Amino acid sequence: MKRYLAAARDLRRLQEARGTSEYYNHCEAILVAAVVAYSRPFVRSHSESAADLKLRPDKLGMFDNRPDLASLHELVITTRSEAVAHSDWKHRFTEVKDYNYKGGILRRLSTFDVTGVISLDAFQELVDFVASACLAFGIDLDRKVRDELAALAPKTNGTAG
User: Fold this and answer.
1) Is the pLDDT of residue 29 over 80?
2) Which terminus of the chain has a smaller tally of CB atoms within 10 A, N or C?
3) Are 79 and 35 in contact (CB under 8 A)?
4) CA pair distance 33, 80, nearest whole angstrom
5) Which ranges constitute the DSSP H helices of the chain?
6) HSE of 114 in the Cβ direction (CA atoms, 13 Å)?
7) 11 Cβ partners below 8 Å, 6+ apart?
8) Which of 85, 16, 109 is nearest to 24 (CA)?
9) pLDDT attached to residue 123
10) Is the pLDDT of residue 101 over 80?
11) Which residues, at least 6 apart from 122, have a Cβ–Cβ distance to it below 8 Å?
């Protein structure tokens, strides 16, 4: 994830240095990939395989002290679900341009500007925060499991068997 965002940031800097938008599509594609990758643990899979259940930040209290990041998290998940991974008509619409174009219909399809909706810097902050929170939660979980296993282990008096 961090590599996606670093690549998009590097391309933006290159664009700015050149005074062009020649890498806009590249930045957009990288950000789309980052949105999908970030969302994966938080979105329930509808497959019939043994996929993990989704991660629930509300159950973990992940954003309790960061409502700004909670809002951004929801925006990223909604963007993934409605505009990136699926084509919700409120984000991607079609317009008929000509009903008689070369024996067919000419349509214009809208595009969704992910880079215009999700700030790269704010997204980076969200990714760093969630990675840190998940790591802390994982360490706490390991400690709890270790303590519970130790409590279940038979007590010895320190002498070998």
Assistant:
1) yes
2) C
3) yes
4) 10
5) 2-18, 24-39, 57-60, 67-79, 114-117, 120-152
6) 26
7) 23, 26, 27, 30
8) 16
9) 95
10) yes
11) 72
Token pair 């938080």: residue: 42
CA distance 68 to 39: 17
Distance separating alpha carbons of residues 110 and 148, to the nearest angstrom: 55
Torsion from C-alpha of 30, 32, 34, 39, nearest 10 degrees: -170
Domain boundaries, the chain: 2-152
- Tokens describing residue 100: 């008689």
Cα-based distances in Å from 142 to 116, 128, 135: 40, 21, 11
Q: Let me know how long the chain is.
A: 161
pLDDT cut 90: percent of the chain above it: 32
pTM of the shown model: 0.73
Which of 36, 32, 27, 37 minimizes the C-alpha distance to 6? 27
pLDDT for res 157: 60
Query: How far is the C-alpha of 96 from the C-alpha of 108, rounded, in Å?
Result: 6
Q: Which amino acid is at 94?
A: T
pLDDT at position 46: 62
